Amino acid sequence: MTSSPDRYISTRGRSPDADFAEALLRGMAPDGGLYMPTAWPRLSPDAWAPGRAYADMATAAMGPFLGAALPDGALDRALGRLTSGFGPAEVTPLRKLEDDLYMLELSHGPTAAFKDLAMQLAAALSSEALQASGERLTLVTATSGDTGAAAVAAFANTDRVRLIVLHPHERVSPVQRRQMTTVEAPNVLNLAVRGDFDDCQRLVKGLLSDESLRAAGSRFSSVNSINWARLAGQIPYYVSAVSQLATMGETRAPVFIVPTGNFGDAFAGVAAQKMGLPVAGFVAAVNQNDALARAINDGVYARRAAVETASVSMDVQAPSNFERLVFEASGRDADLTRGVFETFAREETVTLPADLLNAIRAQVSAVSVDEPTTRDQIAHAHATWGQVVCPHTAVALSAARGVDRSRGPVIALSTAHPAKFGRDVAPVVGFDPEPPKVIRDLGDKPERFEIIDATADAALAAVRGFGA
Ligand SMILES: *Cc1c(COP(=O)(O)O)cnc(C)c1O
User: Fold this and answer.
1) Is the pLDDT of residue 425 over 90?
2) What count of other Cβ atoms lies within 10 Å of the Cβ of residue 464?
3) Which helix (H) or strand (E) holds 59?
4) pLDDT tens column, 245-254
5) Which of 145, 238, 428, 443 could form a disulfide with 176 if both were Cys (CB 3.0 to 4.6 A apart)?
6) Ligand 1 center to residue 259 CA distance, Å?
7) CATH number of the structural domain spanning residue 266
């Protein structure tokens, strides 16, 4: 097989290769690994020239990954829909906070969180692929809040698609829950699981590998950030950030600070760098759910119970895209990658080989930020820069302020609107953050969801009851 950005292999090395449409509609590779392109496309420096339009940058960054897998014009149509759903002309505006410190605002979309960027594209591209093939698709996704909201907004009433969303019962914010449960769409089922986010992820993995559901005729897949299409949809805003820096006269390569849960956002940045985007480094900023930070800093990747924090969308203890980082950092060694994650699945802990660890550390560093520091950062952002930020953004900003800025600018990614997390933000700043229109429009619509136990049987029964 010749390597090419539009041919995909599994991180575990035991799946047939696939094109973009297949990787998009499957989500996870059949051997339990994650799809990766067999080569990184090369971006021309024009891609991040000052003043470029978001859709142009996204076409340059994403086009090579699609190849000829979708009907002509599919990416243009998807990007048209994406950009029309965002307020600012830049789509993801870059805001200067102080010398050499910036915030990239990713929350101006339909559900006021960064996941809209990837999800709107994934929905539009899936519908193109399904129309072309005449198939139907059932999507199952686990969410700690924002993924589900973004997925419901993107896929509601989409032809040929049914969407089932599992969220941890009473562990998502009321706004996030209402974004998922108030939509009137017969193709959407919301399940509230008595457990944590990792339980939801486990149930989704079980459903996706259930042969009896596969046999029922519809494709089964996930829109979690394991889906390559979602990852690809997050690459353009890194390009946009560098372009906007250039517009402001800053040409030194930035360090990106990424508030991290499943490491999908951060891995999209790594991909952009592999494609030639000038980036000086990445810092994954996690909350007290610090399995990733411990893996990178101590060399032992160990599962722990997730704890509840204010940055709930990052309450993840087994970050799925860590597997992509291991694969890439090991020099694309599928045997090693499979070994690491099979050991982790079996023993809940795995020691990373020294060479691998060094390669990972050369790519990304990691910082864990505790709850008092997160609150202090929300207060600091308001007092110093006049910015009301959500807890996820505060985790990134706190880590950003600890980074050496003598060699270049530091960009913290701002991932959600603070009004989605008013319960945590209001007590710190002393007022309720002003909700954007997309949240005001939720009103008092009735909610629809089903509460289930965190067992495979309960999940299967609910999915069967939905007719999937
Ligand atoms: C999902 C999410 C994150 C974490 O992104 P990952 O890709 O899972 O690392 C951070 N902030 C917000 C608001 C999110 O919704």
Assistant:
1) yes
2) 12
3) helix 54-66
4) 999 999 999 9
5) 145
6) 7
7) 3.40.50.1100
